[in-house]
Amino acid sequence: MKVFGKNYAMVYDSLYKDKDYEKECNFIETIFTKRSENIRTILDLGCGTGGHALILAKRGYEVVGIDRAKDMLKIANLKAKQKDLTMNFIHGDITDIDLQKKFDAVISMFAVMSYQTTNVALAGICSVAKKHLVPGGLFIFDCW
């Protein structure tokens, strides 16, 4: 499935420059605090250019981001380097990837779930989240 063209990555951050990633990460951390005391590792499904992943990494979480758009990941890696953050951004399909690793939380923000065009894809993301969560881990996503 191809949702966005190659040039979208180049203008993505400009298009959403008014998006308040900090505030959204504050909300995510509020959920972490209310539901668990042990969130240290996060898997970001559909990380794009790293908006949430980079902020959460800067706040001390170990974050791995996955996206199918290589151009978005190039930008995410560049931003991580500029912020002197060691990040792991992986090119892959969030509907069926298996990293052979567990995380305390899985996030999928900015309507990534809404971009899925089939029930199979939605179920795939949920399955990937479940597969990568420690027992009692959290899966946080938004949609519109």
SSE layout:
Layout: H1 8-15, H2 21-35, E1 41-45, H3 51-58, E2 62-67, H4 70-82, E3 88-91, E4 103-108, H5 119-132, E5 133-141
Parallel strand pairs: 1-2, 1-4, 2-3, 4-5
Helix pairs in contact: 2-3
Explain what the structure shows:
It contains five helices and five strands; from the N terminus they run H-H-E-H-E-H-E-E-H-E. With 144 residues, the protein is an alpha/beta fold. The protein has a single domain, classed as Rossmann fold. A five-stranded parallel β-sheet has the order 3-2-1-4-5, with helices on both faces. Strand 4, helix 5 and strand 5 form a beta-alpha-beta unit. The longest helix has 15 residues. The model has no long low-confidence stretch (mean pLDDT 90).
Which features would summarize this protein structure in a list?
Rossmann fold, 144 residues, globular, alpha/beta, 5 helices
CATH architecture: 3-Layer(aba) Sandwich
Structural class: alpha/beta
Number of domains: 1
Strand order of the largest sheet: 3-2-1-4-5
Give helix and strand order, one letter per element, not per position. Answer: HHEHEHEEHE
Low-confidence stretches: none
Cα end-to-end separation: 20 Å
- Let me know the average pLDDT: 90
Tell me the overall shape. globular
| CATH-defined topology | Rossmann fold
Query: Helical region count?
Result: 5
User: What composes the largest sheet?
Assistant: 5 strands, parallel
Which percent band covers the strand fraction?
A: 15-25%
> What's the β-strand tally?
5
Helix content: 40-55%
Radius of gyration: 14 Å
The level-1 CATH class: Alpha Beta
Name of the CATH superfamily: Vaccinia Virus protein VP39
